[in-house]
């Protein structure tokens, strides 16, 4: 998620934040608009799921979802009373968790309401970490898919390891996987990708996806032709990065993906248990 989008969404969510007697809250009708639910009845279905989740962890629903009435102006100049719900930060978090994470607004809301401070920098940092975790998971899936494709074409697990290593050497300008591990102080038993920044994880993933596609599309078989294909694809990714001023082997290591995932899992468990009374 780009910084400009985060900045815009942050301001939008802050603009509908209310506070009374030191307690922050959001109106469901205003949140509905930000989360791009066109109909109130569809949004109330999500709210009902959030209430069930709240009840499931032993939190009093009435403490987090408060029914209120508000006056709205009609086109004729008159006004009428409509039902609304005052939501705590925790209630908003549960609503976001039950929304469609494929929507940019929902993905942002899940982190915005999870972070117990309104500092934009912390929200942006967490979103970037989520992006990296998702990229790493995607690379794992892509490499698994590639291994299945090439095993059907006469390549064994040992050869697959060599193919991946040669792909790394092409991406990192001659540095082998072992060289890069030493350079970035990565434990020998751990995958290099667990310590790479998001950009390089996505670069490796793109090259891997391209290899899988071309192996099938070109009907490649055997170590030699598949190795060349994977090396060519990683070389192409490297050349693209170099043109944009990025030298893959010179980027600093990122935090261990396992540590980031453990931290997020721990935070998630605390949030799922609900706020302390």
Order of helices and strands: HEEHHHEEHHHHHHHH
Helix content: 55-70%
Structural class: alpha+beta
Poorly predicted tracts of residues: none
Task: Indicate the radius of gyration in whole angstroms.
Answer: 24 Å
Q: What oligomeric state best describes the polypeptide chains here?
A: single chain
* Count of runs of 4 or more consecutive helical residues: 12
Termini separation? 34 Å
Main sheet: strand order: 1-2-4-3
Give the helices and strands, then pairings.
Blueprint lengths: L2 H13 L1 E4 L2 E5 H7 L5 H17 L4 H4 E9 L5 E9 L1 H9 L6 H9 L7 H32 L5 H15 L5 H8 L13 H20 L4 H22 L13 H17 L4
Antiparallel strand pairs: 1-2, 2-4, 3-4
Descriptive overview:
The chain has 277 residues and is α+β, with helices and mostly antiparallel strands. It has two domains: 3-117, no CATH class; 127-265, no CATH class. 62% of the residues lie in helices and 10% in strands. A four-stranded antiparallel sheet has the order 1-2-4-3. α1 crosses α6 and α8 (157-171) runs parallel beside α11 (222-243). The longest helix is centred in the middle third of the chain and has 32 residues, at 120-151. It is elongated and about 75 Å long. It starts with a helix and ends with a helix.
Could you give a quick summary of the protein structure above?
The chain is of the alpha+beta class and 277 residues long. It has 12 helices and 4 strands.
